[in-house]
Design goal:
Blueprint (H helix, E strand, L loop, with lengths): L13 H16 L6 H20 L8
């Protein structure tokens, strides 16, 4: 899932977007040895999670 994350992101969607992003991230992290492509996806997911947390003033977790 690629979200359109920009300054107009609607924080009302965070309650569904964040759990989905975190689940995807956990799945990738718990998978087999990561390739460069998988590492890029992990970085992208981490960035999306941080963006939503920062924009919507949501406390950061360990993700």
């Amino acid at each position: 899932m690629t979200l359109d994350l920009n300054s107009s992101y609607d924080c009302a969607n965070a309650s569904s977007d964040l759990p989905n992003l975190i689940a995807q991230l956990d799945s990738l992290r718990n998978g087999s040895a990561s390739t460069a492509e998988q590492q890029e996806e992990i970085n992208r997911l981490e960035n999306q999670i941080r963006f939503i947390q920062n924009k919507c003033d949501i406390p950061h977790s360990n993700h």
